[in-house]
C-alpha cells in the first residue's frame, strides 16, 4: 500500500538508455504518480526531462520514493534490486529479471522476505494482440492447441552488451508462450550461433514441449535487416496469427469446402476456411504495464508479472543455453512459483 494514501505515488527511474527514456516518458504523464528522480551517471544530454537526473541510487532513495523502475543493464539488476529491497522500496524491473538463475533467485527472496510489491517488465503480456489472443484461447475458440511458433528477428541493438539474444529477446517468447497457453515448458532443445563477433550468441533456434504436449518453436536473432515479431498458434479449429509490431490479430479457420483443383485435392490436411482480422482497441503496452504496476503498489488487485514468473523465464532461458552448449534435449526443472501463483496465471 502507498505510504501516502490519497496522495500521488513518488516514483524513481534507474537507467536512461533507449528503454529507460520510454519509461521516463510514460512515468512523466502517469496519473497518480510523480516521477521525482532519475538515476544515470551520464546525466541527460538532451536536457528535455522534467525530473532531475541524479548521479547515484543513494540520492534517489533520499527522495523517499514509493517505487522504482529498474531499466539499467541486466548485469546491474541484482545489485540495484537488493538495495531497493533493503530500503523497503517496491520495484518494476525490466526483463530479464537477472542474467542468471542464482541472481534472479536472490532478487526474488529479497523482495518476498520484506513483503514488497515487485514485478518484471515482460511488456509483450500487455500487447493488445496477445491479450486478445489469450482471452480467445481461454474461451476455447481454437480447441486443443497443437503448436506455438514465434519469430523475433531484427538488426543488432548496440545498446545491449551484457547478455545474448537468448536472455534479451528470447525471454519475451518464453514468457508470452507460457502466459498465452497457460502451460509450462517441459523440455527444450536449442542451437545458437554467434556471427557478429560478440561474446554472446546472436541467433537461436528452439524446439520445445509444453505440459499439455503442445509443440513450441522459437526463431530469434539479431542478424536480420527484417524486423519481425510474430506469434502463430495452431490448433484443432485453425490458427491465430499475432503481429506484435502492429498489434494485429488474425484467425484462419479450418474449412470444409471441397476443391476441384487436382493438385490441391491430393493434399489430405485441413482445407482453407474463413479469415478474420479482429478490430481490437490498441493502447500502448508500456502505458498499460505502468498502470497495472501503479495499481499493485497502491494495494489494488492488479495483473502484473511477478518476480517468480520472471525467475521461471530466466530458468527456461538458462536451460536453452545449456541445451545449446552440449547439443542435447534438456528437461526443464519444476517451476519456482508456488502452486497458488501458477493457478492465478491461468
UniProtKB/TrEMBL annotation:
Official protein name in the record: Gfo/Idh/MocA family oxidoreductase
Listed GO MF terms: nucleotide binding
InterPro entries in the record: Gfo/Idh/MocA-like_OxRdtase_N (IPR000683), Gfo/Idh/MocA_Oxidoreductases (IPR051450), GFO_IDH_MocA-like_dom (IPR055170), NAD(P)-bd_dom_sf (IPR036291)
Residue stretches making up the GFO/IDH/MocA-like oxidoreductase domain: 131-240
Tree of life domain: Bacteria
One Pfam family here: GFO_IDH_MocA_C3
Domain Gfo/Idh/MocA-like oxidoreductase N-terminal: 10-122
Amino acid at each position: 500500500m502507498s505510504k501516502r494514501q490519497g496522495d500521488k505515488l513518488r516514483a524513481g527511474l534507474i537507467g536512461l538508455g533507449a528503454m529507460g527514456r520510454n519509461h521516463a516518458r510514460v512515468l512523466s504523464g502517469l496519473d497518480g504518480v510523480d516521477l521525482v528522480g532519475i538515476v544515470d551517471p551520464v546525466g541527460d544530454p538532451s536536457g528535455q526531462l522534467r525530473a532531475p537526473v541524479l548521479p547515484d541510487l543513494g540520492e534517489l532513495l533520499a527522495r523517499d520514493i514509493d517505487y522504482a523502475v529498474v531499466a539499467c543493464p541486466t548485469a546491474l539488476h541484482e545489485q540495484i534490486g537488493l538495495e531497493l529491497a533493503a530500503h523497503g522500496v517496491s520495484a518494476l524491473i525490466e526483463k530479464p529479471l537477472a542474467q542468471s538463475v542464482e541472481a534472479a533467485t536472490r532478487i526474488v527472496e529479497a523482495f518476498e522476505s520484506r513483503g514488497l510489491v515487485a514485478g518484471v517488465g515482460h511488456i509483450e503480456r500487455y500487447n493488445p494482440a496477445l491479450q486478445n489472443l489469450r482471452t480467445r484461447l481461454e474461451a476455447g475458440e481454437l480447441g486443443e492447441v497443437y503448436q506455438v511458433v514465434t519469430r523475433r528477428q531484427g538488426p543488432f541493438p548496440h545498446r545491449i552488451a551484457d547478455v545474448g539474444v537468448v536472455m534479451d529477446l528470447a525471454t519475451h517468447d518464453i514468457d508470452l508462450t507460457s502466459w498465452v497457453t497457460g502451460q509450462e515448458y517441459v523440455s527444450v532443445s536449442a542451437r545458437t550461433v554467434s556471427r557478429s563477433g560478440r561474446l554472446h550468441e546472436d541467433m537461436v533456434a528452439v524446439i520445445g514441449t509444453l505440459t499439455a504436449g503442445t509443440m513450441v518453436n522459437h526463431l530469434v536473432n539479431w542478424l536480420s535487416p527484417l524486423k519481425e515479431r510474430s506469434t502463430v498458434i495452431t490448433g484443432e479449429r485453425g490458427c491465430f496469427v499475432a503481429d506484435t509490431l502492429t498489434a494485429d490479430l488474425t484467425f484462419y479457420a479450418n474449412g470444409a469446402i471441397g476443391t476441384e483443383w487436382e493438385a490441391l485435392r491430393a493434399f489430405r490436411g485441413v482445407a482453407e476456411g474463413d479469415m478474420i482480422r479482429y478490430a481490437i482497441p490498441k493502447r500502448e503496452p508500456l502505458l498499460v504495464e505502468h498502470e497495472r504496476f501503479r495499481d499493485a503498489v497502491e494495494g489494488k488487485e492488479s495483473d502484473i508479472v511477478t518476480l517468480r514468473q520472471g525467475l521461471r523465464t530466466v530458468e527456461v532461458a538458462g536451460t536453452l543455453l545449456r541445451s545449446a552448449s552440449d547439443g542435447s534435449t534438456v528437461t526443464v526443472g519444476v517451476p519456482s512459483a508456488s502452486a497458488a501463483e501458477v493457478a492465478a496465471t491461468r
